[in-house]
Amino acid sequence: MTETAMSKRVMFENDGRRLVGDLFLPEGHAGRRLPGLVVTGAWTTVKEQMPGRYAAEMARRGFAALAFDFRNWGQSEGSQRQLEHPANKTADIVAAASHLATRPEIDPGRIGGLGICVSAGYMAGAVAASPALRSLALIAPWLHDAAIVREVYGGADGVEKLIAAGRAAQSAFEATGEPAMALAASATDEKAIMFNAPYYTERDRGLIPEWENRFNLASWEPFLTFDGIAIAPRLEDRPVVMVHSEAAAIPHGAHDFYAALPGPKSEFWLDNVTQFDFYDRDEPVGRASDAAADHFRKTLK
């Protein structure tokens, strides 16, 4: 493992919006074209949270790794702020990979994608769609379909209510230009989207100044109707590694996704690692990063 990593600010465009990222590079990389990775994180997050942590870890392991803010998030442009929109985020990942392919630090024939939590599905969709993305690693993947959505979000009635609220919020935004927001996470307010959730409610972890603790209610319909598991058969010859734990979020969705993968695949299941510990705890982050790095060294030759 390379001992240190450095980062530089990068910008690129997609769909008329400027997207802002941090490109992490191993020290002493000058003069070498490196394998490149696009790294994306959990829902609602920005590049300074778990995407940046994993991008730095991958740079220490010899890769050029880009963590960036999706449109409407963090430092990137977009008027419908804090919108969790799978199709938009997937398209932004494809644009990020295309940007990496133009950079002098990177070998355009050796680019992969690393998706954490919810963005595992978005990253899988991007790898299926983009010839630039040659290999895929998923860490603590949240992969749902309609059945899992009903299981998690209060049955058919609960899902219908959330989608109705999302449609109302989208209509209001189209009429006024003002997004309808809710509190994303709280340790005290039960109305928050993530009530009493670790990481997001802890200032020494995910509750950082760069993260706006807000959730755009118009996110509900695109998010709840997204089916990440259905993407698996489209990956064809793309090699995939998955790192997860039965103690983390919806492992049965990950099992279903893995079973449906048609191409080369491997999986590593860690014992007693929670979803949130995959985001920033040293041991699970290190083990997941080692597995991803080994996978990319073998598949991005």
Describe this structure in words.
The chain has 301 residues and is α/β, with parallel strands linked by helices. The chain has one domain (5-145, 227-299): 3-Layer(aba) Sandwich (Rossmann fold), CATH 3.40.50. The chain has nine helices and twelve strands. The chain has helices at residues 50-60, 86-102, 119-129, 146-152, 155-176, 220-224, 251-260, 277-280, 282-299; strands at 5-14, 17-26, 34-40, 64-68, 106-116, 135-139, 181-183, 185-186, 194-195, 214-216, 240-245, 265-270. The strands form three sheets. The chain has an eight-stranded mixed sheet with strand order 1-2-4-3-5-6-11-12, with helices on both faces. Helix 2 (86-102) crosses helix 3 (119-129). It is globular and about 55 Å long. The mean pLDDT is 97.
Q: How is the largest sheet built, in terms of strand order? A: 1-2-4-3-5-6-11-12
Helix content: 25-40%
| Count of the domains | 1
Mean pLDDT: 97
CATH class: Alpha Beta
CA-CA gap between termini: 18 Å
Q: Quick one: biggest sheet?
A: 8 strands, mixed
**Coarse shape:** globular
CATH superfamily: Alpha/Beta hydrolase fold, catalytic domain
Strand content: 15-25%
Briefly note the CATH topology name: Rossmann fold
How many DSSP-defined strands? 12
Going by CATH, the architecture would be 3-Layer(aba) Sandwich
Essential attributes:
301 residues, Rossmann fold, two-stranded antiparallel ribbon, 12 strands, 35% helix
How are the SSEs ordered, and which strands pair?
Elements: E1 5-14, E2 17-26, E3 34-40, H1 50-60, E4 64-68, H2 86-102, E5 106-116, H3 119-129, E6 135-139, H4 146-152, H5 155-176, E7 181-183, E8 185-186, E9 194-195, E10 214-216, H6 220-224, E11 240-245, H7 251-260, E12 265-270, H8 277-280, H9 282-299
Parallel strand pairs: 3-4, 3-5, 5-6, 6-11, 8-9, 11-12
Antiparallel strand pairs: 1-2, 2-4, 7-10
